[in-house]
Amino acid sequence: MIVVVVMISLAFSSSQLSKVKCSDLVIIIPDDSPRFIDEDQIKGLVKKADSKLFDQKLDDINTEKLEQALKKETAIKNVEVYQRVVGSSMDFKGRLMVEVEQRNPVVRVRNGKEDFYMDKDGVKIPANDRFTAKVLLVNGHCDAGYVRKELLPLINYIDKSEFWKAQIEQMYVDNSGEITMAPLVGDQLIEFGDASDYRVKLRNLKALYEQAFPKKGWDYYSTINLKYTNQVVCTKK
Questions:
Q1: Which residues lie closer than 8 Å to 115 by C-beta, 6 or more apart?
Q2: Final residue of a domain: which of 69, 87, 102?
Q3: The whole model's pTM is what?
Q4: Residue 185 confidence (pLDDT)
Q5: Are residues 137 and 216 in the same domain?
Q6: pLDDT of 89
């Protein structure tokens, strides 16, 4: 008799669960995530992708379709949509859960015509007034294609290094592809040349920081030139 009662109870619950409608939409964004798109905007995208979201049974919602729609937003790297039923056996409520992972930018580009971010994979993310990421700034003659092809290996190298992330604040690219860097410490300009041989150039610059700056001070030089192979040419103030 106990087995029969349990089976009847389970059957009743299963029958009830299959009739549960979607009554709530929950957006989950990790606390440490960039917020190019916030919870309200994501809710709007979900409702746009399925205008009858709250008029249908939870089991009938096409979660894969919703995931594909959200992934069209370049700021979104990964998304998982799933159903969850909460409440008691007599008062079930259906929730649609949307977990969103947004792209982490490594650089912001302002070239006079565009203002955008880019992640380590070269995906372009439009900038907006709601969120500002503290990343390296690049301006001057640099569109997305140039940044992706010429600068991104250098930028990723800087981003992976705690030392260089604490040193390089901004880059300016002139019309011939020559890069000038502005450091966070000191007011000297770093004439980097193009982005080729960036590992060697940064190695030489680090040697200057470690060997010369402790003796001369951070404000002794007005420019540091790294253009020439295995040479560091400094101009004092």
A1: 108, 109, 126, 127
A2: 102
A3: 0.85
A4: 80
A5: yes
A6: 60
Distance between CA atoms of 218 and 212, rounded to whole angstroms?
A: 9
14 part of a folded domain: no
Residue entry with tokens 């909460």: 86
What is the Cα–Cα distance from 112 to 97, expressed in whole angstroms?
40
Integer-rounded Cα radius of gyration of the chain: 27
Cβ of 2: how many Cβ atoms within 10 Å?
A: 6
Q: Is the dihedral of CA 86, 89, 91, 92 positive or negative?
A: positive
Domain that holds residue 49: 20-102
Q: Please, which residues bridge with residue 140 across strands?
A: 173
6 in a structural domain? no
Residue at 93: amino acid letter: K
Mean pLDDT by 10 residues, the chain (237 residues): 41 58 93 94 95 89 95 96 81 90 98 96 95 96 96 97 94 96 88 95 91 74 87 85
DSSP 58: G
Q: Are 166 and 175 in contact (CB under 8 A)?
A: no
pLDDT computed for residue 75 by the predictor: 96
Q: Which two tokens stand for residue 227?
A: 């253009």
Residue 113 identity (one-letter amino acid)? K
2 in a domain, yes or no? no
For residue 71, what are its two tokens?
A: 């992934």
Residue 3 within any structural domain of the chain: no
Amino acid at 32: D
**Residue 16 confidence (pLDDT):** 58
End-to-end CA gap in the chain:
95
